[in-house]
Specification:
Layout (H helix, E strand, L loop, with lengths): L3 E6 L4 H13 L3 E4 L9 H10 L2 E4 L9
Parallel strand pairs: 1-2, 1-3
Length: about 70
Amino acid sequence: MNNIRIGITGQSGFIGNHISNNIRFLNSKYSLLDFEDSWFENTEMLDSFVEESDVIIHLAGINRHDS
């Protein structure tokens, strides 16, 4: 059986960080895909991320925005 590829937006946040650490260190049947916030502005990178993911956990959000 192949690894389930999981993409997490917001990996650098509190919840995303804890989920990604668990995926990386506690379970070998999952693999975590890289994600960068700048990909929200780059359609090609975002499309590639979505296509490569079997599961996406969307946690990205704006915290303490300037306006």
